[in-house]
Amino acid sequence: MNRQGLRGRSAIVGVAESPMVRDTERNLREIVIGAVLGALEDAGLSPKDVDGIITDDEISQVGMTGSEVVGALGLQRSFMVQAPSAGAGYAYAPLLAAMALEAGEASVVLCFLGLEFGREQPGAATFAYLNEGSDRQAFEYPFGFAGTPVYYAMVAQRYRALYGLKDEQLGALAVSIRNHGARHPGAQRPEPVTMADYLASPYVAEPLRLLDCCLRTTAAAAFVLTSPDRARSLRRPAVLMLGAGYAASAVSRRHFWTQRPEFPATMTSVAARRAYEMAGIGPADVDFAELQDPYTIAALMQIESCGFCGEGEAASFVEGGQVSVGGRLPVNTHGGQLSHGYMMSVTHIVEAVRQLRREAPANPVNGASIGLVSGLGPGDCGVLLLGRDA
Amino acid sequence: VVHRTLDPDFHDDVPYTIVTVDFDDGARMAGRLCGGNPQPGAAVAVEFYEVDGQVLIGFRPSGG
Questions:
Q1: What interface predicted TM-score (ipTM) does this complex get?
Q2: Cα(A254)–Cα(A274) distance, rounded to whole angstroms?
């Protein structure tokens, strides 16, 4: 079977997310199990139906690993894989699931993520635990080139030097995304934000201000996939994987931020091209986008990497409410990582599924039939195209 | 320019500026800007600085 043959060969049939909070008295294991059971219940399935698991135990060093969930729920499984790096991997997971389903290696595949990044613990919020003993620690950290705000500030400065980028343009994107979150009942930080609030927000690392930065979250989210045929017999409208792609820099994600040949761009454009090719569609067919947004600049650059505008044009693309619901391309209709919660790309997938089922709890994109989700890891990029089952 | 840091090692340094420098022979490295306000693409020269007895590589606009 060629890649195009996998179009539509997996369907997301259940989604769930816990409350998004900075910290909680609850044990993370309880939160993860709650999200997993919630996604299964949403699908009308039970733990005994699950025989495949795709997760990311590298990031989940601070969460709950796949095998721990297996043990807690007594899951049988014939298929269990580690997705590549965080958000990128979760965006790619529906394609991995399609391969397993087509090959008969699994019939129901579970994906989940639990994080306790809101809890004060050494290195959690800066991913320092991924950097132990790396060349990054030797050649980047000692000068203070450390922590994701600093990395993405450098990306934004480079973007500004190459194409021009006004504070108000980053601000327009922050305001659009955060006001989606303000209307969403599940958002961790539902405060509405104006451009004046944005411009008054202090710099963290120029040009990025506090309101350009993601939240720290303790929460979990999960989704469940099965074959399109079985999906149609279940209780909820099926949402089909139309295409997906994954691509990564030719540099170890542990080792360097500065040494990527494509800097400041990412490999998202390659992942997007592979996703569009599989789906047989183009950017003009996409009704909304849920882009992993650790920082506004990351979402801004993915807008152009996913082909919604040309190189260097995203800064003007996000102005004038064009990325708000009702605009040309609604982006992060749940508030993204800026105000909904930091769950890599998993809550982005949950939101896309709810939009395509036409049951979004807020900010509905009228008539939406195709949505794009992007995920980012350190150097790893994933793009997923989801479609409402016709 | 870094204004806030989660990392206690750099709490006393803020605000500080990081630059990426492309060397004439093709290598690229990150380092601390030790002075000046170079525009993107401007030439810089290496300047060493010391933190707790350790010598680190920084940069300053050349001829400035």
A1: 0.88
A2: 25
